[in-house]
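Revision sheet: structure tokens.
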Amino acid sequence: MTATELGQALRRWRDRVTPEAPGLPSGGHRRAVGLRREELALLAGISADYITRLEQGRAANPSGQVVEALARALRLSGDERAYLFGLAGLIPPGPDMVPGFITPSVQRLLDRLVDAPVAVCDAVMTLLLANPMYAALMGDPSGLRGVERNDAWRTFMGAPTRVRHTPEERSACEAGMVSQLRRTAARYPADRQLRRLIAELRTNSERFAELWDAGAVGRFEAWHKTIEHPQVGLLTLDCDLLRLEESDLYILVYSAEPGTGAAEKLELISVLGTQNLVAPGL
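Predicted:
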């Protein structure tokens, strides 16, 4: 397969995705039938220039991580995803690799949750998808690249976040993350990217190394989170974590009890959107 065929396929799939589907604004004059290159770049976490070069045949052999991100952003089916990997000269990740594919049925479910902040993570706690409400609440994650999108890395490396923990909550959160990574590493021992993440955290975070060497095994759990929003201040929300066992993905859904101050603040955040937001955090 040539780079030209890859570029044609990307353009064809880009044309069929409306901006409304992933929650992007659709107003104004649009020459593009579907997504603009800049919009696809935003959704996939890839530079618009690189997408242009792929479509024009001036770049070839994208990495598996880039192909997976494009497949999610373009809402490809399983067969289309496999075809895209083939166009890129790659083999789709097998059962020994951490899954990162969001099926069309799960995507349709997410499309219905427009009023709540929702994020999808893989079993390594890497952010795969975030809806506009999540971006408005937590900070726009579209500029995060590679390991920056991993919640464990951000936590142990001290990246900015809007989540505010008590010391007890932070300790429990850290232990849960290490336990989750250990469980995932045992399930996918051939995943080199996961091994590199664990090695980096053991080298650069004393706290991670301490917890890892303690040998805890388990799952990361979410219950509630207190978030400091730059416009509305502090709000505490319920955080439900839904596991998709077959695909080993996690859906995080934030909500507030109706009639509470947190519900009012969440409604205000939905109006504010991502305007004037700073310090993106997961």
